[in-house]
Fold this protein.
Amino acid sequence: MLHSKCGGRLKMQYYCPTDDEVVERRDTIKGFEYGRGQYVKFEDDELKSLEAERSNSIEIVEFVPLEQFDLVQVEKSYYVGPDKGGDKAYQLLAESMQAKSKVAVGRWAARGKEQLVLIRPYQNGLIFHQLYYAKEVRAFDQIDTGATFEFSDKERELAEKLIDQLSEREFDVEKYHDSYNDRVLAAVEQKVAGQEISVAPEAPKAQIIDLFEALKKSLAGGEGSSEEGGAVEAKPKPPKKTTEAETKKKPRAKKRSAG
């Protein structure tokens, strides 16, 4: 964030509306809201005493079937390598879990908090996922999935044909990229070079509401056409409601890799 007047980078400040003044960081204290507008205060040393004991090791608690692993629980991912002299045990664990189709559930103390983690075989080694606790993830039954329908054999056949038409034997992540990021970087280069940036306006597109019709048009090849002969985009309506799976602010942690 920059100041539009001078272009200088802005700095964050803490403001107290009660005293109507900017508060320096040294004059702040942490608190927990136990009731509406009611807080208990904590000194830094009090919070420090509540932290989990720092450890570089991961404690394995249990092994569970791979199919029990739900991706909605994943917060972050880290590659795991062996410590010096631990190569043999590392490889033995990875290969044994692979053979049994099991993953390990464990604990890892990081930044003063005991993290829930899941370790699984990955390529020629191991990867572990830092997980959200159950109370940090909303239940899916809170989502309104709309009305229920009975589909005809013809509708199911069309949907299955569309899936077959777009199916690939494997997922190649390299063919996907952030097009918005590419456009921003290109614009940055233009600005640095002193060039003018022009953006062509997008033409309005029609929208097909009936998913069944969209499937038929897609399977017929291409976008299809309207009654007037114009192109019509096969795009269903967005869902009425969405919600975030996570409900709590996550602690920052530096990833070693595996974005």
